[in-house]
Amino acid sequence: MDYYRKASKTFQNLLDLVDNSLSKIESILLGTGVLLMAANTIINVIGRFVFDHSFFFSGELNRILIVLITFAGIGYAARKGRHIRMSALYDALPKKLRKVFMIFITLCTSIVMFGLFYFSLGYIDKLMDSGRILPALQIPVYITYVWVPVGFFVTGVQYFLTAIKNLIQKDDVYLSTEVIDEYHDVD
Predict the structure, then answer these.
(1) How far apart are CA 155 and CA 168, in angstroms?
(2) What predicted TM-score, i.e. pTM, was given to this entire model?
(3) Helices marked H in the chain
(4) How far apart, in Å, are the Cα atoms of 41 and each of 79, 113, 119?
(5) Which ranges of the chain have pLDDT less than 70?
(6) Which residues lie across from 180 on neighbouring strands?
(7) DSSP letters of 43-64?
(8) Nearest 5 degrees, angle CA 110-CA 23-CA 114?
(9) CA 165: distance to chain centroid?
(10) With contact defined as beta carbons under 8 Å apart, do 110 and 159 qualify?
(11) What pairs with residue 140 in β-bridges?
């Protein structure tokens, strides 16, 4: 029994390390992306209205940053338990069945995310073969979409970690590795 507890604790520490590392990377990507997009937009507006000159690359740069923010954000939303959920059936279940249901949901979602990761790699491969480049920035178009498979992969990992967390932790139901499913009575 003592061996099982040590192994479980070691495994939990490993999961926490992976989760915390992904969290830091996502936070940096999201923060930097939002700040760069805001700065790019503000500088372009000032340039357009004050100096009567718009930056030719501003639209393309913002498009790249939107893809980055969107696909870095899906993993972040999964970590914070902030994805949209259809929970009428789930909410009606007793706690033990909610836990089983959550494990099933997170494993299925993880599989879907890894499937999308796989297909997005194929899409990027096709973009690489096309040789297309962005007109203003003169960089290959596939670089713009590199964040798509990264986001799907990180989200798949996040949902998988949530399933593992629900398997390891016996008492609570976890919506994500950080968020416990709790119900509060409304007065």
Answers:
(1) 20
(2) 0.80
(3) 2-50, 58-79, 88-92, 95-130, 141-144, 147-168
(4) 29, 32, 32
(5) 1, 4-5, 8, 84, 86, 183-187
(6) 174
(7) HHHHHHHHSS---TTHHHHHHH
(8) 20
(9) 18
(10) yes
(11) 133
